[in-house]
């Protein structure tokens, strides 16, 4: 039987399915915030549908395995017309036709079947594996939607930066052309600004295309159009809580669904070894039969029969198939064990990487915040210096590029900080819809 934790997860999955149905019934509205995007993705995800179907199949497998340990009752009936020609039975030959009827019922009750008991254990273990697979699929959808949602916001932010840079360069281009007309400028300066302007226009085209691609990726997850997404206006950067790697690693080794699934698969493979070895075991069954037959060469003859037997079957030689099955099961068990060890190492690395990345994202966010403020002051100062002749056009173009670069780095750090929170919880196997709600609460309005 699967544990209380597994039953709790199944109940949570049922609640999530009900929520998905409600979202699906509401129609394919355009996603406007992270919560809506997550609900749409969860309601339409083929990955989740596949995981739920696999769990349903394994749940159905348990009564199927249990059936091998329960009584089997069968009934049969027949009726027909017969002709017979009999010689040697008395002086006269007998040639006649007659009607015959027969009814029977049989009962078979397994008393001892070692392989059937092991198969029942395997069905419970497969349910644990499928439950863990469903939990992983749910966390995967939450992580993918979060990453893709903020990728759209980052692409849109880069588009705004590119548009702003084009406008800045247009104003500089207008200023240099005016200076050339009045005789205080030179053609080299005009050409230099024009080259930068052309490059920024190309960057703007690339940024707009990136927005289209990012939205398409989000639509692939939600199976719904993407509306004007809410954005983050202010953010207090937060690191890991607790800020100690040890409890995060312990949580990952305990709660990571992938690890739980691998452990369950190892248990199944070890039980398969036991199943193969029990092919050597005898089986003991109790059988009973009741039969009624009417209609023979002697029409008045009726047969009523009741019988029972205790049947013992002992396998002696099966052509070597049992030994081969044991060897195969042991090899597959070693494969499952190696996979579990490799997965443990990978989960440790992923958790540590996510922990460090979240720590780094805080420092990176604060650094890029300061860099934007500094780049803006530098641009304003350089612009005034150019107007009075103390700075060159090259200085102004460099300051403009630096300001745009600082803005892009800031938005990258902003959305990386938010995604890093989700990645750490996903690595530890503790990502829940409540974490999506917490991120969604940070969204204020469309940019």
TL;DR of this structure?
By secondary structure, the chain is an alpha+beta fold.
Describe the structure using short key phrases.
14% strand, two-stranded antiparallel sheet, 6 strands, four-stranded antiparallel beta sheet, alpha+beta, single chain, 447 residues
- Tell the overall outline: elongated
Distance between the termini: 52 Å
CA gyration radius, whole angstroms: 38 Å
Biggest sheet details: 4 strands, antiparallel
Low-confidence sequence ranges: 1-13, 15-27
Number of strands: 6
Q: How big a fraction of the residues is strand?
A: 5-15%
Secondary-structure class: alpha+beta
Give the rounded overall mean pLDDT.
89
- Compressed to H and E, one letter per element, the order equals HHHEEHHEHHEEHHHE
For the largest sheet, list the strands in their spatial order.
1-2-4-5
Number of helices: 10
Account of the 3D structure:
This protein is of the alpha+beta class. The chain contains ten helices and six strands; from the N terminus they run H-H-H-E-E-H-H-E-H-H-E-E-H-H-H-E. The strands form two sheets. A four-stranded antiparallel beta sheet has the order 1-2-4-5, with no helix packed on it. Helix 3 (46-66) runs antiparallel to helix 4, helix 4 (114-182) packs antiparallel against helix 9 (393-428) and helix 8 runs antiparallel to helix 9. The longest helix is centred in the N-terminal third of the chain and has 69 residues, at 114-182. It is elongated and about 145 Å long. Mean pLDDT is 89; it is low at 1-13 and 15-27.
């Amino acid at each position: 039987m699967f544990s209380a934790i597994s039953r709790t997860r199944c109940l949570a999955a049922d609640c999530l399915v009900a929520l998905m149905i409600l979202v699906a019934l509401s129609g394919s509205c355009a996603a406007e915030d992270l919560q809506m995007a997550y609900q749409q993705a969860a309601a339409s995800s083929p990955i989740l549908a596949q995981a739920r179907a696999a769990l349903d199949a394994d749940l159905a497998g348990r009564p199927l395995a249990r059936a091998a340990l329960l009584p089997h009752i069968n009934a049969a009936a027949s009726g027909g017309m017969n002709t017979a020609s009999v010689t040697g039975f008395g002086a006269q030959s007998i040639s006649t036709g007659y009607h015959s009827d027969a009814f029977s019922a049989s009962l078979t009750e397994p008393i001892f079947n070692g392989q059937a008991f092991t198969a029942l254990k395997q069905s419970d273990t497969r349910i644990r594996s499928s439950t863990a697979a469903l939990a992983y699929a749910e966390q995967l959808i939450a992580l993918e939607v979060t990453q893709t949602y903020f990728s759209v916001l980052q692409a849109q932010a880069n588009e705004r930066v590119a548009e702003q840079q084009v406008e800045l360069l247009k104003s500089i281009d207008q200023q240099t052309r005016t200076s050339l007309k009045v005789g205080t400028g030179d053609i080299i300066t005009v050409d230099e600004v024009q080259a930068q302007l052309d490059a920024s226009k190309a960057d703007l085209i690339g940024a707009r295309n990136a927005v289209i691609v990012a939205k398409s990726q989000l639509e692939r997850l939600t199976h719904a159009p993407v509306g004007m997404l809410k954005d983050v206006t202010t953010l207090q950067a937060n690191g890991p809580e607790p800020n100690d790697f040890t409890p995060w690693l312990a949580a990952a080794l305990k709660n990571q669904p992938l690890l739980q699934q691998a452990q369950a698969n190892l248990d199944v493979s070890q039980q398969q070894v036991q199943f193969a070895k029990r092919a050597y075991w005898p089986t003991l069954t109790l059988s009973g039969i009741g039969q009624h037959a009417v209609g023979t060469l002697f029409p008045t003859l009726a047969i009523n029969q009741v019988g029972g037997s205790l049947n013992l079957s002992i396998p002696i030689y099966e052509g070597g198939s049992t030994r081969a099955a044991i060897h195969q099961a042991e090899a597959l068990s070693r494969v499952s064990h190696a996979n579990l060890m490799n997965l443990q190492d990978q989960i440790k690395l992923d958790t540590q990487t996510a922990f460090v990345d979240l720590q780094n994202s805080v420092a990176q966010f604060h650094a890029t915040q300061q860099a934007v403020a500094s780049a803006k002051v530098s641009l304003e100062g350089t612009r005034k210096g150019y107007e009075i002749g103390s700075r060159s056009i090259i200085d102004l173009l460099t300051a403009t590029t630096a300001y745009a670069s600082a803005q892009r780095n800031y938005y990258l750090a902003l959305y990386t900080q938010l995604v890093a929170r989700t990645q750490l919880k996903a690595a530890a196997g503790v990502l829940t819809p409540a974490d999506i709600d917490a991120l969604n609460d940070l969204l204020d309005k469309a940019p």
